[in-house]
Description:
- The protein is 58% helix and 10% strand.
- It is mainly alpha-helical.
- It has a two-stranded antiparallel sheet with strand order 1-2.
- α5 (58-65) packs across α6 and α6 packs across α7.
- The mean pLDDT is 90.
Amino acid sequence: MAHLSGDEGLRRAFAQSQDIHDFTARQIFGIAPGVAVDPNQRRMAKSVNFGLFYGMSDFGLAQRLEIGRAEAKEITTAYFARFPDVRVYIDRTLEEGRRNGYVSTILGRRRYMPGLISGNYMLRAAAEREATNAPLQGSAADLMKLAMVRIDRALRDSELDATMLLQIHDELIFEVRATQLREAAELVRSHMESAIELSVPLEVTLKAGRNWYDVEPMNEESFEHV
């Protein structure tokens, strides 16, 4: 959303490597610098971030947060006041969807949305939620699949003893020979962070372990002990 909408507030948060949900909570609740965001405020901000990107209404947000509809509307209004280009992007996406009959991902894949011009309110509202989210989810899929194709090719070209086993949302799981862990990790990070050039940085967290349950974050110190 930060890239597609061009919103300066969201871009600044990612450029500064801030916790986006903490950042959002500070913006919509007016929390001053140096004052801690409490867990409930962060939880609410996270629901707002994902909820609005899924086209969630004030009513839906109120249900998710278990608050009154009026309070949910205040939070939504505060959010769009702080991130105005997100509102502009959503409105533009819906208008283009109505005009073209489809919405597109960052690489141009289309999802056709005839429901956007339906005379049935329920069908139209559902289509608007789907059309708001489809470019985001679809673009995330574009990014991940492109990274997977390039990593697979790079692993074969490098002749590393490493195999891509599984994708889970925004995670990739590999089986790697222990003596080649550092080289494989650097290859994976490079291709994931450069899969598509965005206006905000893509940061990858590396974890390793003998099994999925025991994985721990990797850093330069952990590389030294491989």
